[in-house]
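Researcher: Before we compare anything, I want clean individual predictions. No alignment, no superposition, just each chain on its own. First chain goes here; please echo the sequence and then give the structure tokens.
Model: Echoing the first chain and its structure:
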Amino acid sequence: MRPKIKNKLQQAYSEVHNMANSLQGLAKAYKNHDLALMHTQQWDDTNPHLVANKIKVILEHIDPLDLSKKDRFWWHEILWFWYHHAISCAIWKRKSRSWAQFYADRAMTLQTANHPNKITKLLWLLVYDRLAEAKWWAAQITGIEAKTAQETIREYERGEFFK
């Protein structure tokens, strides 16, 4: 691994108090931090002081093609997760369709093939007002995400997106 990339990764590891020494470990620490922010409603795409945002910025300055296949997977996973939550922030906190579309587009490009999360695509369809497709997609979602999918469709239909 090139020294420049190694330095950037070390910077990211330090953001989680060196609780990680690999991109896989960083993904775990990042996810725990990110979910805590979402739970307390402190997640904010514009706050440069949040660890989640600092890590996102660091990783976006790394070309994933310079990483091993395994590390590239975790790079995608962390950034996808950031953009996935950024969609929600743009919809319900910022009330911005344009930001929601930007974040949704980016999340869709970062989400790896066969990723288990189906809500990202649902949000992408809804921020582009593709309700019929979103309803069809939501009907295909099973398991733990099924309830979230149906609730999200109802919120959209009630006009709660961007308001």
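Researcher: Okay. Second chain, same rules.
Model: Second chain and its structure:
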Amino acid sequence: MSKKSPTSSRRKAKTAPDRPFDADTLKRAKKIASTYRLVLEKNEAVGFVGSSIELPTVFTDGLTPASCVESTQQALVYAVATMLESGQNPPAAASMQRRNVQVNVRLTAQEKLRLTEAARRQGFKGVSDFVRIAALDRTNAA
């Protein structure tokens, strides 16, 4: 039987999903997530659905606007804490980022429709942010 080294045990424990977040990580995550711009939408089935500009694929719901804001903020804190613990850089607040450079891409009508449908399925309101984030994710994976 092989023994696990203390280093590998620590590494595994740090990324285990069934344990609380480190207090410092959670504090950092709360600070970052508190700067995110929330988006609430009325939804007849659940009351309200909330997400953020910075992390549009993180969303929750609530019966009232206040409960939706609270659950959305909590979900964002957990998402940011997860990113921090896995070594990723959470996005900066939208208010801190100026997008002043434009890239134009020509698509067929069918391509645009496919991208629009994929964007909506993943919680994006439009194709631009979906394409930007997908392309940036792809460059980070390389």
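Researcher: What stands out in the second chain?
Model: The longest strand covers residues 38-43. Additionally, Helices lie at 6-15, 23-33, 65-85, 109-121, 127-141.
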